[in-house]
Every structure is written in C-alpha cells, then in structure tokens.
C-alpha cells in the first residue's frame, strides 16, 4: 500500500523541476512554464454525466505535468515521458480530427479545440510527464488534456474559466480523439479544489465545492487499481449510453435525469422495452444517491456515506451491468474486511475501486483485497489512499 502522493509545495517544486529537466532533454533549453492537472476519482454518480445528472468527483494528488514553450513557426511538437519515442510534430494550422494518432491526439485535440473556439493559439514545444496511472479509470486522459489546456490558456493569455477549459478538453476527447466521454472528468480536473469534492450538475454545469475532510473524521479513501481493463469497455459504454438515450426518448423526457425518483416505478411500467428498465433504474437511483451523499457530507455524517457507495456498486453491477469480476471482488473483499462502503469508480469493466475506511483499517482492507486477488490468481492490485487535491494549476 503506497501512501497518498505528496502534495506539499516542495513536492510541486520537484515535479516542476523534473518536467523542466525532461523538457530540456527532449527539446533543449527551458520551458516557458510548467502546468499540472490531476486525475480524479468519482465518489458517487456513475454513468449519470451523459444523462444530464449529478456527479461528485474529487481530484487526486496524482497529476500530469505539461512543460510548454511557445514557438513562432506554428509547429506543435509533442513528447511524453509515458510514450517513449520520437517527438510528434504537427502544424497547428493543419490540425483536424484524424490528423494525430495515439496519445498525441489528446494534446493536439486540445489545441484544435481552443482554435475551433476562436482562441488564437500558436505552436509550442510540449513535454508531458505524469504519475496518473493510465487506463485505470482515474482519468489520465482528462489530466493530460487539462494540463495542456491550462498551459495554452495561460501562455496565450486566453482567459477561459476552468469550467470552459473543461468543455474544450471534453470536445478534444469527443471530436478529435473520438471517445464519447461526458464532461465529468475534465471538469473535475480543472475545477476541483483541495479538501473538497465537486458536486456538479452536468445539465447546467453549475457546481458547488462540498467539504470532504476525511482525516478530521478519522477516515480514509482507499483507491484500488485492479490493473485490468476489459476489451468490451468502449463498446459497452457506447451501448449503455445509446440505451439511456433511447429510454429517455421512449419516456418523452429530454434526459433520464428528468425522471423523478418518486416517479420511477411508473416510468418503468411505462417503458415499452423491458430491457431498458434496469438502465433507467440505475440512473434515477444513482442521481438520488449523489444528492444523498452530498446531504450527508453537508451534515458531517461521513460514515453514513459508506453504505450509499456499496448500494451504488450493486446498482452498477446488477442494473447497469458495467462491473466485472475484479471490481466485484475488490468491493466484496473490502466490505468483508470492514470497509464502511466500496464501489467501482469510472466507466467500469475494470479500472479502480474506492473504499471508505476507518483510518486504522486501511492496511487491513488493502491486504484483504490483495489476498483475494492472489487467491483468485489475479495480478496484484495497486492501492493508495487519496485526499481531495487541487485542480489544474501552474506549477512554475
Ligand atoms: P483513463 O483516462 O481512465 O486513464 P483512457 O483510456 O481514457 O483511460 O486514457 C488513457 C490514454 O490517455 C492512454 O492510452 C494514452 O493514450 C493517453 N495518456 C494519458 N496520460 C498520458 C501521458 N502521460 N502520456 C501519454 N499519453 C497519455
Ligand atoms: Mg479517460
């Protein structure tokens, strides 16, 4: 079990220095600045962000750093410590969906989205470094997009608010990379503040920072990366999303968010395609769980959040059917070992699980999950505790 990533100013200084050193090795000389944007875990509110519903993410201490220096020749030159290989070189003027492949599509997409939004962006040398595990459901893609977005916004004095930067980063992922994600990950990465979860209404993008001082309550948030990502994740996401849209259309509402909890049974009866009923039940009850957790946090009743997380997992497993053997195993082992509650976080079919645990039970719960994985012959999961950290920012 590793401890939370260091969030002290000294650590930020060190991370910036490391990114600048990486920049110098690849591009030569010094960057104009270094920006950081975090990964996230979602406390509750899964698969609600494309149903105009509620989410409650928090930023992780883990960040992606972008060291960036402006160029005057209109070239974008991209390099990442996590994608060893040649520098990817693209003229900013020629950026269009399909112009970049692989990892480079994320940063290139951000520059494209800024330009599409009417911002005057020029070329730059970019070096990326990150400690957000990629593909673990912790949103390394949003961290990468948002670090680059923050860098370009600052360097070119563009001035968009963090929430607008998030929309541009989402546009990059949707339309340039081609991943139909909702807006939660990018909003968490740009808008979260330390010590708080972000209660976001994905319909009108209004949000509120909800205090989440786990340590003061004697609690910890354990994050378990199951180290698996099943191949069906992308197709299943698109299929669930289409199912939700179809159910909303059949019910005559703009989005499933508009089905009230006390109208759920009536809506389910009315739904002419029975196969869609569990999807509707998940989304409607999940929105209610987000509101419940926010109310509990506001009331300072943090321990009562645990069972709501576990109920959310059951809904994702049984109704929305986006869980898998490994996430179910981690949740069950954590709860059996005394976690107050646990659930998969992120899109599903692998990725990470979060567990709310008493401070003195962290090691026991992490060991129980590791033992369960070993007994099942699975790759050892990676566990760490997370405190709510700061969103995208300039480090140097
Ligand atoms: P998640 O966002 O949950 O980590 P995704 O599949 O959405 O998973 O995004 C992972 C992809 O994002 C990687 O395959 C890679 O293309 C890109 N990526 C993320 N972080 C980096 C990085 N530091 N360097 C290069 N590419 C990265
Ligand atoms: Mg992602």
**Radius of gyration, rounded?**
21 Å
The whole-number mean of residue pLDDT values reads 96
CATH top level label of the largest domain: Alpha Beta
Task: Catalogue the ligands.
Answer: adenosine-5'-diphosphate, magnesium ion
Shape, per Cα inertia axes: globular
Helix content: 40-55%
| Contiguous helical run count | 11
Can you tell me the CATH topology of the largest domain? Ribosomal Protein S5, domain 2
Strand order within the widest beta sheet? 5-4-6-3-1-13
Poorly predicted sequence stretches spanning 5 or more consecutive residues: none
What is the β-strand count? 13
N-to-C span: 30 Å
CATH architecture descriptor name of the largest domain:
2-Layer Sandwich
> SSE order in H/E notation?
HEEEEEHEHHHEEEHHHHHEEHEE
Classification by helices and strands: alpha+beta
Question: What is the domain tally?
Answer: 2
Main sheet: strands, sense, barrel: 6 strands, mixed
Q: Beta fraction of the residues? A: 15-25%
């Amino acid at each position: 079990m590793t401890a939370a990533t260091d969030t002290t100013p000294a650590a930020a200084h060190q991370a910036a220095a490391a990114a600048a050193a990486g920049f110098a090795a690849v591009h030569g000389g010094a960057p104009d600045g270094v920006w950081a944007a975090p990964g996230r875990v979602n406390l509750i509110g899964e698969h609600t962000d494309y149903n105009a519903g509620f989410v409650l993410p928090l930023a992780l201490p883990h960040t992606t750093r972008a060291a960036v220096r402006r160029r005057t020749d209109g070239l974008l030159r991209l390099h990442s410590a996590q994608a060893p290989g040649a520098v990817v070189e693209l003229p900013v003027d020629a950026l269009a969906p399909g112009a970049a492949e692989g990892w480079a599509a994320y940063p290139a997409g951000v520059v494209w989205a800024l330009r599409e939004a009417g911002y005057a962006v020029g070329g730059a040398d970019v070096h990326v470094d990150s400690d957000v595990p990629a593909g673990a459901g912790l949103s390394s893609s949003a961290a990468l997009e948002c670090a680059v977005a923050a860098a370009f916004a600052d360097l070119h004095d563009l001035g968009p608010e963090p929430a607008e930067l998030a929309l541009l980063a989402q546009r990059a992922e949707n339309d340039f990379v081609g991943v139909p994600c909702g807006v939660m990950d990018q909003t968490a990465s740009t808008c979260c503040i330390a010590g708080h979860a972000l209660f976001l209404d994905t319909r009108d993008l209004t949000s509120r920072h909800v205090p989440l001082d786990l340590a003061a309550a004697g609690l910890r948030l354990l994050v378990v990366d199951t180290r698996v990502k099943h191949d069906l994740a992308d197709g299943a996401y698109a299929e669930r999303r289409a199912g939700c849209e179809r159910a909303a259309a059949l019910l005559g509402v703009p989005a499933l968010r508009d089905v009230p909890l006390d109208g759920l049974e009536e809506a389910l009866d009315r739904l002419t395609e029975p196969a869609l009923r569990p999807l509707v039940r998940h989304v409607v009850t999940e929105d209610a769980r987000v509101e419940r957790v926010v109310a509990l946090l506001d009331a300072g009743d943090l321990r009562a959040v645990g069972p709501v997380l576990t109920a959310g997992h059951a809904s994702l497993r049984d109704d929305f059917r986006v869980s898998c053997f490994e996430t179910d195993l981690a949740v069950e082992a954590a709860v059996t070992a005394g976690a107050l509650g646990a659930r998969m976080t992120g899109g599903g079919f692998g990725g990470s699980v979060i567990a709310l645990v008493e401070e003195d039970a962290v090691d026991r719960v992490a060991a129980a999950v590791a033992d369960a994985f070993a007994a099942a012959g699975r790759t050892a999961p990676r566990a760490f505790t997370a405190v709510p950290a700061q969103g995208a920012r300039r480090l140097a």
